[in-house]
Amino acid sequence: MSSKMKCAQDIIVLLALFLHVLDAKYTSCQAQDTFGFNSLYKAGDIMLGGIFAVHFELQAPEMLFRSKPLQWKCDSFDILLFQRPQTMVFAIEEINRDQSLLPNITLGYRIFDNCINLQVSLRAAASLIAGQGDTVNDNNCTGPPPVVAVIGEPLSSYSIAVARLLGLFKIPQVSYCASSPLLSDKREFPSFFRTVPSEAFQVIPKIIQYFGWTWVGAIGSDDDYGLYALKSFSEEHKKFGCIAFSEAINVNDKSNLKRAVKVVQQSSATVIVVFLTKLDVSILINEIAHQNITGRQWVASDSWGAFAALASNENFKYFGGTIGSHSKKRGHPWTGAISASSKA
Question: Is residue 298 within a helix (H) or strand (E), and if so which, with residue range?
Fold first, then answer.
């Protein structure tokens, strides 16, 4: 027997022995580790998933690759935001109590807190559609049932990312806050639905045209939501005016934020349209106040038009008289416009 054939036989024997040991050791499917979510869970015949923002901050562990990373930690709990998942739980419990609605069927839920972090949102979505469990004791690896639909995300940019994942498996997603028109494209987001109207960006150009403002600036978030909003607004406004500047910003990048604020400060445009979420615009507000930029007319998108922080004593000097828009479709083309920061 040649040395090559003997070597091949030895490898086959070692491989068979290795597989035998594995089969004896792992009689069940076992996950290597789990990601620690803040969650609510109740078993049911039909499972519904939920992704909500309950915390405002997330502390990521250091990735030094010398030891196992610690779990991510959520901070800044918001009791008002916690009412949203509680509402979902209440609705499910009420349906279960009424046997005339779903006789002999019990709804269950698995709800995750995304801590206002896209990575956590995607992890949550993946866990919801795959089923979540540490150990499965049969050879078929059938763990807890995956959900049949997901409630959330609250933010448009997060909804876009999650919808692309859920859409691959045709899992329905119902958002209660996401208003970006981008999500109305059923070819790209076939299983996305929402309970709020699409944010009609053409409303803001009509407001600006009504007041005769032709020289304006625009700020949006550097993500799908903000970039689409800036593009849509610019196309509408250019029909009767000019864009002084159009800035896509990342409020978590201090240098990027300061550069954008400097553009606002140096521009001759005094009317500025802002497409940001409440969380992002709060950081912009602080920077505008820090740089003492006054004499600007701010126009807010639907997501922060009624932000209470605008009317605070500290911010009124800079944002007093801000105009917010709501996408109503009856009456005057900007029936939903409000003076969000009027102190009266």
Answer: strand 297-300
